[in-house]
Amino acid sequence: MSRNQRSGCGCVFAFLALFLVMPLALVLVSPAIAARIVVDGRPEHAVYLQEWLWGSAVAVPLAALAVRIVLSRGGRLRRSPPVRRWSGYLLRGLGLLAATNAFVFLRKEPSLLGEHVIDDGTSLFGSAALIGLVVLVAMRLWDGRARRVTVAEVRAAAAEADQAVRRVRAQNDRVRRQAQQVRARVEKLQRAERPGVEFHSLRVFHRESYQCADTAHIAYHSAQTSLRTMAGLVRHARRAPYQLTVSSRARAEMRAAAAHLARSQGELRSHVDEGLDMVRTLNANTSELKHEIRDHCGRQGREWFEALEERVEQAREERRVANRFGGGQ
Q: What is the pLDDT of residues 167-177, one digit of tens each?
């Protein structure tokens, strides 16, 4: 990198530090400045007290928001229930405020320049921002640390996995039957010679087939989310026997529970993969049925096909727009 490029990068970092980090630090330490104005008791500073009090009111939600942004999505707090999650953000935000404001309150000396509340705010706020950054990094590391699991947790997860296996098996049976029925109906239509046959029943059957595939896909997606959660729990459970300092019986129970969970997880993954393949087959058969309805059901079939294609294209366009705006956030 040339000297000019390094100089340009330095200017960019300086700009970001000056116009982004410093204002945030200024708001976060507003309570300390307001407290210093009250403690110092200088009349020329008292006129600024209300402004710093407004900053203090904004500091609390800003600190909670900073904590939320910093914490990992895979951390403990973000995986907690909503009430606990937001109360956790608030408590950690108050901890962040306590650290930064205590530093500023103790380090700030009464201004010697008359009307100015702060003589040299750059070094003071810069140090406060550094302390806040250290606190946020510590919170992230603490929130993402590995958690020891109990035998009861692993057994409960294994029981839930067994129930999920039974649900996915039942879903697979429904999808398999529907795909076979659609295939049989398509072959029947292909052999038919008389146009205009059973349009209304075919239209209802097509909708039922589409809804079956849609419902199954949602169920499989939910099962895949559970599989990702189980994968982390299996890793912790397999390490747990080496972390336990209790009896060998307790370690053996943990190994057995972890093995049970791993087997259930593997079985669930296998059935989900099988179900997704059957959904693709069902969708292909349903698409073929759609074209057979167009070709064998006369004018009604053609009009229905054109309206359906228009709705499908409109839904695709809406998804593209949503993905484009969602990706830009």
A: 999 999 999 99
